[in-house]
């Protein structure tokens, strides 16, 4: 399971820089929702420092669920639950999902696929495919000398990619946030804060990093036959069986240099429709957009982890992800229900230069 580590680190706020040169400043103007969330993190009462019980290093979130979506909840060591009123980590609230009525999930997704399949292909005018994403992520380490440490870094990532694999990527990182300011050094020593300021890079032909690692390049081109596409998906280790993320990653990769064929988007939805254990709901994203939420869940040690991919109901494009934890918090010190990772696409389109936005 290979993930692009830069994308992993690049998601915790709603930055929107609609004006000015994208190479200037940090582009970290926050939406009211993001501002409230970050302010709550800054003002949260520092939790009591706790020391993990002696135990072997282990993954705490269940098989295949350490890496989720486009971001990671990096869980290291054996975390212990602190005082009930002073959790070690703070997260924004989870999305409210409203199950679709009148149709089972497979029938709803099949109908959705038929609508998408009838769409006209998008024009590919312009040299570069532009995309802009944001979200939240929390990194936690439980094997530091001072006990459990946490850090979150606000970031927005913009990409300009040409068909020959050249382009530009710009990531703007906000000030790191520490639920317990005393753990500043522990969090840094544990590698929880890796980037700061603005990282702006240009790439020559074939050099632009693949959005989800190199695996998808060996599978493409992708089939528009759902049965063949399902077999192609199994050639890449997509989250230990979480096919919602396999579809998300595949469509993200397919759309990195241009529009995705409506037939491929429809085929991806039909792959989801044929998968048992998938649920479908409607929701509103963190920026107020309507979306169709396709989820899979895993129950582990008395808790449930819900993995969700959001789709644009008009186009069938994936527009975000969420990983949420319900029930028992396991040994991850968060108040449940808890959002562990959040991503959302803020914009996409074609432009002629790497200095433009659509």
Strand content: 25-35%
Q: Poorly predicted ranges (pLDDT <50, ≥5 residues)?
A: 1-31, 40-90
Average pLDDT over all residues? 74
Number of domains: 1
Q: Tell me how many strands there are.
A: 15
Q: What's the shape?
A: globular
Report the major sheet.
10 strands, antiparallel
Order of helices and strands: HHEEEEHEEEEEHEHHHEEEEE
Strand order of the largest sheet: 4-11-12-13-14-15-5-8-9-10
User: How much helical structure, as a percent, in the residues?
Assistant: 10-25%
What order do the helices and strands come in, and which of them pair?
Layout: H1 5-9, H2 32-43, E1 67-68, E2 71-72, E3 75-76, E4 98-99, H3 105-117, E5 128-137, E6 139-144, E7 147-151, E8 155-162, E9 167-173, H4 184-189, E10 197-203, H5 226-234, H6 243-254, H7 262-273, E11 279-284, E12 290-300, E13 303-311, E14 318-327, E15 338-351
Parallel strand pairs: 3-6
Antiparallel strand pairs: 1-2, 4-11, 5-8, 5-15, 6-7, 8-9, 9-10, 11-12, 12-13, 13-14, 14-15
Helix pairs in contact: 3-7, 5-7, 6-7
What does this structure look like?
The protein is an alpha+beta fold and 358 residues long. The chain has one domain. The protein has 7 helices and 15 strands. The longest helix is centred in the N-terminal third of the chain and has 13 residues. It is globular, with a radius of gyration of 20 Å.
Characteristics:
single chain; 358 residues; alpha+beta; ten-stranded antiparallel sheet; three-stranded mixed sheet; 19% helix; globular; transmembrane helix; membrane; CU044_5270-like; transmembrane
Short description:
Keywords: Membrane, Transmembrane, Transmembrane helix. The chain is of the alpha+beta class and 358 residues long.
